[in-house]
Amino acid sequence: MQHHWKELIAVDRYTVQSRGVLQEVDRKVLTLLYQPLIGCRALALYITLWGELELLDGQEATHHRLMALMQCGLPDIYSERLKLEGIGLLNTYVHAKEADEPKLFLYELRPPLAPDQFFRDEMLSVFLRRQVGRHLFIQLSNFFARPSIDETKFTQVTRSFSDVFSAVPAEQIVAGLSEEAGPELLEGKNHIRRDEASYVLDDDVFDFELFFAGLSKQLVPRRAVTAKVKEAIKKLAFLYGIPPLEMQKLVLGVIDPAYHIDIDALRRAAREWYELEHGGVEPRLVERVQPLAYRMMENIEPRTKEEQLMKQLETISPRQLLKEISGGAEPSLADLQLIEDVMFKQQLLPGVVNVLIYYVMLRTNMKLSKKYVEKIASHWARKKVKTVKEAMELAKEEAKTYQNWANEKEKGTRTVRKVVRTEIVPDWLNMDYSQPDDDDFDVEQARKELEERLKKYRDES
Question: Which residue ranges does UniProt annotate as crossing the membrane (predicted)?
Fold first, then answer.
């Protein structure tokens, strides 16, 4: 098992460096555009580390110092740090010394995207609109928009380099650099570099092998799918749930005779495809299903109840699962928002989130507790859980720990009385420990109800 304390403890040391300078406009971008996505605590950690950059001035400090500055515990600092890493605002490096010595962490801060880059990014802009609503999104977009100037009314009078500077013999340039600048400048060191925040989507969110397999090299040469195009395809496929075969059609529709793929045109085509498929409704992560590359039961006939459940959780969206658990009623906005936040911030795949929903519903009297869900989701993200099977196995392995987390939550609201009882639960959730104090809740009955509702959904499908 990997708790936060196995990766980070209070005596571990840290130092801070940056990949650029934070400008005034960056502070507005962070507050108004990033904060709705990562939350105020993650933003506070980011700003605190920027302050530490100047205060520490290259020196080291223990995480006790960060806990005192933030006035919060190490688990919170760790979980908020992961959000900054996931969205591209922070790079973290660790220097592991001897086993009994504290680790040294290097926190490398990265400035946020410029406003125009943020609003051009399909993932970030769409999820910002989902978080703040259409009205505020338009207001923010207008606030950061630069007033356009009609350049056709002007005549360019810019001088070229050769017009301004006289030619200098090559030997003088080399001599000047070697005598005055020194080797550091020649090697490109000590330059202030602005490396803006960029989040990373793994290649495995999209099946490029299948995408290329059905694509004629005569129509779309491999060289046309540049690194930027590939990144755009990943983001659009992740956001809109576009399968590889559909993406082929979209790419064929926007490639020009010179074999150039217009990314802006591809974005428009992806949006149009989604609107046709979903009737103009904005994309929601909770509508997505487990990618084919991560389905263990695809083209396999289930032989056990556990395999039936696995297949079901691989082929249903989190929203549909919540709906079936509620007996066909639409899930509450709060539940949908919670699940969508988990999928976006922890980047958990839909099938894994389904296991999380199923597990939490069984363990907490059919309720989705925000802190409990987020805590387990954070653990699964650190464990890099990708498949339904992996999630089910981890839920079984860590059952006692997860129940302790649930009991800790209960202690904050009421006195917990230990009630020991034995219940029949699914094979992957066999547990032997004290259950929470809730005499009115029967785990086995809840499991049966869940199975009945999912069975009904399978039959109707």
Answer: none
Q: What is the pLDDT of residues 272-287, one digit of tens each?
A: 888 787 666 666 677 7
| Per-residue pLDDT tens over the stretch 403-440 | 777 776 555 554 444 433 333 344 555 443 334 444 44
The answer to whether 44 and 70 have CB atoms below 8 angstroms apart is yes
Nearest to 83 by CA among 263, 300, 307, 341: 341
Instruction: Using the structure block, give the residue that is written with the tokens 């040469």.
Output: 221
pLDDT at 456: 57
Mean pLDDT of 288-317: 84
- The per-residue pLDDT for range 204-250, each reduced to its tens digit, is 778 888 888 878 777 888 888 898 898 888 888 877 778 888 999 99
Residue 142: exposure state from Cβ atoms within 10 A (0-12, 13-18, ≥19): exposed
Supply the pLDDT for residue 250.
92
pLDDT reported for residue 13? 93
pLDDT of 36: 93
Lowest mean pLDDT among 44-53, 149-158, 332-341: 149-158
Helix H, strand E, coil C: the string for the chain is CCCHHHHCCCCCEEEEEECCCCCHHHHHHHHHHHHHHHCHHHHHHHHHHHHHHHHHCCCCEEHHHHHHHHCCCHHHHHHHHHHHHHCCCEEEEEECCCCCCCCEEEEEECCCCCHHHHHHCHHHHHHHHHHHCHHHHHHHHHHHCCCCCCHHHCCCCCCCHHHHCCCCCHHHHHHHHHHHHCHHHHCCCCCCCCCCCCCCCCHHHCCHHHHHHCCCCCCCCHHHCCHHHHHHHHHHHHHHCCCHHHHHHHHHHHECCCCCECHHHHHHHHHHHHHHHHCCCCCCHHHCCCCHHHCCCCCCCCCCHHHHHHHHHHHCCHHHHHHHHCCCCCCCHHHHHHHHHHHHHCCCCHHHHHHHHHHHHHHCCCCCCHHHHHHHHHHHHHCCCCCHHHHHHHHHHCHHHHHHHHHHHHHCCCCCCCECCCCCCCHHHCCCCCECCCCCCCHHHHHHHHHHHHHHHHHHC
**Nearest Cα residue to 196 out of 115, 125, 114, 116:** 114
φ/ψ (deg, to 5) at 176: -60, -40
